[in-house]
Amino acid sequence: MSEQRMYPGMSPEEKTTFAPYSAFDIPADLRELTGRYDVEAMARRCRNFRYAEEWMMMMLGGWVATIPELPVKTGLGKIIWECAQAADVLGNRLPELRCGVRAVAASQSANEGFAALIQSISEPERPDLTIEKLTGPFDVLMPHLVDVYELTMRETDQICDAPTIELLEDIVRKHRRHISWGQEVLDRLCDTDALRERRRVRAAQISSELVESGGVTGTLASERGALN
Amino acid sequence: MKRFIHHEELARDSRFVRQDNAQSTVLATLPDDVDTIVNAFEQFSDMIEGSVKGTAAEPLFESYGPGFALTILNEPIDPDAPAGLTRLLLRMHGIFVGEVQALEGAARSLWDFPDAPWEFKMNMARQAWDEGRHVQIFEKLLNHLGGEVGMFPESTFLFECACSKDPAMRVAGVNRALEGLACDVFRDMIKYAIKTGDERMQQAVDYVLADELTHVRFGSEWVREFTKDDPEYLKRTQEYRRKVDKQFSFGGARSAREDAAIPIAWDDRLEAGFTEEELEDLAELSGSGPSKKTLVAAANILRERHFAKRAAKAEAQGTEAQS
After folding, report:
1. What is the rounded distance in angstroms from the CA atom of residue B77 to the CA atom of residue B198?
2. Which of B104, B117, B149 sits opposite A65 (nearest CB)?
3. Is B38 helix (H, G, I), strand (E, B) or coil?
4. Which residues on adjacent β-strands are paired with residue B254?
């Protein structure tokens, strides 16, 4: 620890001191070089995450015209753009993970089950199905993505894979806002027991399909302990 | 969810009143002939009356008859003109529903064209956010002027005309023709706001106009990209855009003519990527509709006939009551 020093020009009676700082005074970095995912595994995860973000953007885009509630239409506009940005930064990470410069637009479903889940979430079409439309992404898919992204941030190498952590932090922050918006809209729309039941049934159906598919990375079963 | 939807499937909350697009179609194809215009509007008189019933446009119908749109569209917005505020609100409401449909068109492009290049999707996603903000902005401006959502009927003519199933034609129709029209209308609204000292409207619409230039640019770039190495496809796409431009010239109300209610925003369009050649073409095709003189003459005849019908109806009701 460095010695306390007086500010220059001040008399000793004032007893004002400061601790000098330099590279040597910064606490040691105690993090270890360890992480659950190697470069290839993280690249696969980024492609899986990008697939979810891209399809979420597309399905929300498709629904804007068939949802009658005006504030929902306008609110979705911003979420569509933020999902697009999420997919974009995930794509930009791929060449950095040795996938080649042409990989920036590469999305990949973890398995057929997750691809089928996305189609199932995007199924509702009629204007009277706003509850069914919003429940899939905002009650089930986005919370699942946030869980998996946070798990990934915790378990990946904190130093070697810091760029992935940085971009996921930003995506999680925005998705938390999206979830809160979507759930507030759903709470308002579901103002009777019958409507709340519709939301519950839809959420249960999508959740069950999500678990069956193994989630966005296809490995939900092996990660469930970590997902609480 | 299916790909591509019909304009009648656009979902609205209970405040909105839907208008049949037939009137807009007729307006877009009128020749420079008073009798033809009068006959066309008389044919749709009952439908027009039905569509404005219970909305803020009903007094306009009562004052001008079925040709009220001709009067409104073909005269510049003037705060001192009779029914000036109602006409301003009608235009503002028209812009508002246009923004709703632009939001739906841009967002729908993400679902309708899943195999489009990633950069195209990014541009459409960005446009969806912008259009969502524009809907909020024009709803607020409508309220600022004393109006409200649903006070006038909505025609979905914009979505119907511009939302092609072909991606190059979709961006040519939505991003170049309609967003180009938006440049013209917004430049005109900014002039109006300056004239009336409405700084809130001036600043808000100025920001929206800046966004529209970006959207036109998206359109210019994607038409070029989608049609590269295929001159025939480019030609068809340009023809499609010209058709939409013609439909949205409102019979010459939006044109480079001296009597145009909405002048072409030449400088804004150049900045957005239109060429001088394209603008000269637009000026020619938009100016080829009926002249203002013809439309005013037709509007006057329609108004006189409307009053005559109303008088005859009142007389018949009076006779019936007496007997």
Report:
1. 14
2. B104
3. helix
4. B262
Q: Report d(CA A164, CA A224) in Å as an integer.
A: 22
What is the CATH topology of the domain spanning A38-218?
Ferritin (1.20.1260)
Number of CB atoms found within 10 A of residue A44's CB: 18
Please report how many Cα atoms fall inside a 13 Å half-sphere around the Cα of residue A19, on the Cβ side. 7
Q: Provide the token pair at A228.
A: 């609480």
Judge contact between A81 and A122, C-beta under 8 A: no
Fold of B7-308: Ferritin (1.20.1260)
CB spacing of B129 vs A54 below 8 angstroms: no
Residues of A with CB under 8 A from a CB of B: 54, 57-70, 73-78, 80-81, 83-84, 88, 91, 104-105, 122-125, 127
Range B127-164 burial, b when 16+ CB lie within 10 A, else e: bbbbbbbbbbbbbebbeebebebbbbbbbbbbbbbbbb
pTM of the model: 0.89
Provide the β-strand partners of residue B19.
B155
Q: Which residue of B has its CA nearest to A130?
A: B11
Question: Tokens 């990660």 map to which residue?
Answer: A223
Q: What is the ipTM of this complex?
A: 0.90
Report how far residue B144's alpha carbon sits from residue B130's, in angstroms, rounded to the nearest whole number: 21
Domain ranges of chain B: 7-308
| Alpha helices, H only, A97-192 | 112-121, 130-134, 142-155, 162-189
Tens digit of each residue's pLDDT (9 = 90 or more) over B184-229 = 999 999 999 999 999 999 999 999 999 999 999 999 999 999 999 9
